[in-house]
Amino acid sequence: MDIFVQIVVAAISSGTPLLFATLGGILIERSGIIQLGAEGLMLMGAVIACMTYLNTGNLALALMAACAISAVLGVVHAFMCVTLRANQIVSGLALTLFGTGLSAYLGKSITGQPVAGAVPKVNLNFLENVPVIGGIFAHLDILTWFSFILVIVLHLYIHRTSWGLHLRAIGDNPPTADVMGIRVQTFRYGYIVIGSMLIGLAGADLLMVYSPTWIEGMTAGRGWIAVALIIFARWNPIRALFCAYFFGALDTIGFRIQLIGSEIPSYFLKMIPYIVTILVLMFLGWRNRNKPSGSPESLGIPYIREQRF
Amino acid sequence: MKHLVKARTAGLALLVLMIVILSACSSSNNNKTNEAANNGNAQTSSDPAATDSGKKLPRVAFVYIGPPGDGGWTFEHDNGRKYMEEKLGIKADTVENVPESADAERVITELAQNHDIIFTTSFGYMDYTLNVAKKFPDVKFMHTAGYKTADNMSTYFGKNYEASYLSGIAAGKMTKSNVIGYVGAFPIPEVIYNINAFALGIQSVNPDAKLDVVWSNTWYDPTAERQAAISLLDKGADVLLAYQDSPATLQAAAERGALAGGNDSDMTRYAPEAYLTNPTWNWGPYYTKVVQSVIDGTWKSEQYSGDMVDGMVGLAPLGPSIPDDVKKLVEDAKAKILSGELDVFSGPITDASGASKLEAGQTMSLENILEMNWFVKGVEGTIPQ
Questions:
Q1: Secretion signal: which residues (chain B) (predicted)?
Q2: What is the model's pTM?
Q3: Does A262 touch chain B (CB under 8 A)?
């Protein structure tokens, strides 16, 4: 049982940055805009959070700075995709390249400086003696708790409120939404900016909680895994939670298999996350072959009032 | 439709603008810091200035596996470079974050075109350095930690296992759970003989302690190193050592109240209370000597192995939470190594399967140490064969 708890704890700690990025991506894609800039946004969020924290020592300020910089980049993405109706894939890739390069440049002076222990933990000591639950939930940090709350809020928002209905409408059928009096362009701007802020927060979480030192390219492909997770989770926040922790667990499981004295070479164990990604994609593709994909129907199509396609 | 075309053109124009701005950024960066970016556009403006004596100073370049800010391996090489620059009044060029792949050969080739001596500071650069060395017979190549040489290519390293043994004494004394963990980068001899020396050091003071080994399969990836460290802590280890380039293991141990050491550099500043000790490098004097020999024209290809006596290998000061009697024990053993009285790999030594590897009274030759591919008894882990 101990091992189970340890793996769940490790999965949550390495899955939380993925979760934030996936939730942000879901918001953006639900509004009908493809989001491929997660890697760049996460890196920018991380480097800005690190610089702010090292200079001010203020956690809230660091998180706000990470959200602010990714909001600015989100506005750029929104301007390209919504106002200029540029290709959303190209714009997303440009954000990734831009964020990767700029973060490496900005981070040169702070590389290797530790920011350990910056995020306070919520110590629920009364849980300590409860088996399993206590081991998992007694000492999580505030950002992890925030991600739990966010999952529930977003789920209720998307599926249970009229605002959420509007969000789904502009992603599925913007002309109809427009006729109903929903301002498609304005809402798309809003969701891209909010979603980008969450992705920036994912970068800050990665840096402040998971790996407390800035290193060039520290996301190591997590932004792209988040893009895949949006599809695995079929644009649903609750499923996103489980998908993110599943991939978080894959990050750590290789080392544990080494430690129980298996004869599998460690090189093979290192391939686990990538092999599982392919297997899961194949499995989901097969299982859902007769179902609608769950993707917003107008995903990737710019909306222009009164234009026929 | 016209709108759409216009919009696309505008979008494209914006993209081009972004790219132009970006590239402008990176090139101004290059000029300022005299360092090449990761894409390998090696800076070529080093000044072959002549000294007052009329002797031409060599143009020196360093190839790094990570950033100098890694706090460990590359940090120490960069310190060595600065030491050499100060002593000889030379400004060396550096290229950071060069992967151990065909990229390395490209970067080294570009540097070879306008430098006289190039230090390639990672094991994985060996074959690429050799390839380039064959193409540029007039350029001197210095490769770290390898075993291949050529007329114009030397290799240099140090007996850091002596310091690993001393770290083992401290670890063996400090463990309470008798489980000690080791995060190893790659299952290659350099790491394996350090693990073995560490284990022998542990066993010299605490025969009951076990050493668990996990491979991260990376030199520098703090997130992976951290996960590896946490998996060892979860298994009950209370003292860790990491043969990695970053202090991630030490930081992970500090959060759990365990003790740990890193590698390459004194890492006290990352977590003073949790710091054990670890082997350190001091490359500066050697780099100065090598570049001086190029200036004097006396450079010869060699296989150099430094040690604790000549100072290339050192042991970081033990952390503030290590009691004085343990410090004394380590100091005594260090004195014995310095005087030549103590040889780390002296018999009897048996491997993990129980087979005898070295008879009592014998010592292992450097050659055998450098190709070690087995664990001593008491080490738990697997070496992929």
A1: 1-29
A2: 0.78
A3: yes
